[in-house]
Specification:
This protein is mainly alpha-helical. Helix content is 55%, strand content 1%. A hairpin with a 2-residue loop joins strand 1 and strand 2. Helix 10 packs antiparallel against helix 12.
């Protein structure tokens, strides 16, 4: 259209610069998770490799089964179920028995996803649903840790890995002593700080030379994965930033009040599963709010609640429950923070 010597090109909406499908986003999330998985395998060995394979294959098989039972088209090809399997394994201890991991994967898909109608309808993050189930069902196994970089990690498995259902595994402590690791206490950095006021050096938290769940040890690799997704506009950067900010807002005053008892904010951000949860789980598009202000409220809530559980609860870690509760209240947050329609007189 020409007007006053100027030419304008008017086109109908939507004005999209590029077409990005769900499959593209999910595939890139898998790409971002691969370095985390590779580091977990390098640090803990063959047991973690089998753990990742088990949870992923069981998740895929369960997804196919539930789609068939519900007479729905299979959603295996969109990569979302692969993300569930990988994330679930990364939240488990390196020597977690494989049969328990299979149970967790089946529950993650069945209760966390299929029960609500499948892809896009789940209320909570499926991987965390599976993890929460096995934490309640197998409390000893879920809190049994092994140190990283054992000499025989690529030639033998952690004894508990191949434990048969309802049998008692070989004590991991004896196996650790056989590998000549005498100084290992069996505690994660969070447990050491909470019960013994011992703070793990920041360098160890960044690089992942610590005990913990398979994928939570290296905060630096997780952060790089988040930057990759945000740069490709496949991650709402406000969610991980808001989660970390919420954690700082609660931990900083407590640290200033009593530095001998409470950890400093940097330790809070880099330790445990906070970084993994903030980048790859709280940011789940299905379980997070859709409004801009709602995203900030949701993220700040998760970060703050995580620290409250850590400092004042009986558990050393609280990110799993914080994210699940955030998922539950996400629809309410979206509803309350809906912007007013132009010309609307007011809400009834």
């Amino acid at each position: 259209m020409a007007e006053g010597g100027l030419t304008t090109d008017l086109r109908s909406s939507p004005h999209l610069k590029q077409a990005t499908t769900v499959e593209d986003i999910m595939r890139n999330v898998v790409y971002a998770l691969l370095p985390v998985c590779a580091w977990a395998i390098y640090a803990f060995g063959l047991s973690v490799l089998l753990l990742l394979v088990t949870t992923t294959l069981v998740c895929i098989a369960s997804e196919a089964l539930f789609c068939r039972l519900a007479n729905r088209p299979s959603t295996i090809g969109d990569w979302s179920i692969v993300i569930t399997g990988l994330l679930l394994a990364l939240t488990l201890p390196p020597g977690f028995p494989l049969w328990m991991a299979a149970v967790a994967a089946f529950v993650a898909v069945g209760l966390g996803k299929a029960l609500f109608g499948g892809l896009g309808y789940n209320v909570m993050n499926p991987a965390l649903v599976g993890r929460a189930f096995v934490q309640a069902a197998f409390p000893v196994a879920i809190t049994t840790w092994t140190p990283p970089f054992l000499p025989g990690r690529f030639s033998e498995l952690i004894p508990s890995t191949l434990t048969l259902p309802f049998t008692k595994p070989e004590p991991v402590v004896d196996w650790i002593e056989q590998n000549r690791i005498d100084a290992f206490t069996g505690a994660t950095p969070l447990a050491l700080q909470k019960f013994e006021q011992i703070t793990t050096p920041v360098a160890d938290l960044l690089t992942g030379t610590i005990a913990g769940s398979a994928g939570e040890t290296s905060a630096l690799i997780i952060l790089l994965g988040g930057i990759y997704l945000a740069a490709r506009k496949m991650l709402d950067w406000r969610i991980p930033v808001g989660v970390l900010l919420g954690a700082v807002l609660v931990s900083l005053p407590m640290w200033l009040l009593d530095a001998g008892r409470y950890p400093d904010p940097l330790f809070v951000l880099l330790s445990g599963g906070l970084m993994l949860g903030a980048v790859f789980m709280a940011s789940d598009m299905v379980g997070s709010p859709v409004t801009p202000s709602g995203v900030w409220i949701y993220a700040l809530f998760i970060g703050a609640l995580t620290v409250i559980i850590r400092l004042f609860g009986g558990l050393t870690e609280g990110v799993m429950y914080a994210i699940l509760l955030g998922n539950v209240i996400s629809p309410l947050i979206s509803r309350v923070t809906q912007p007013r329609i132009f010309g609307e007189e007011g809400k009834r």
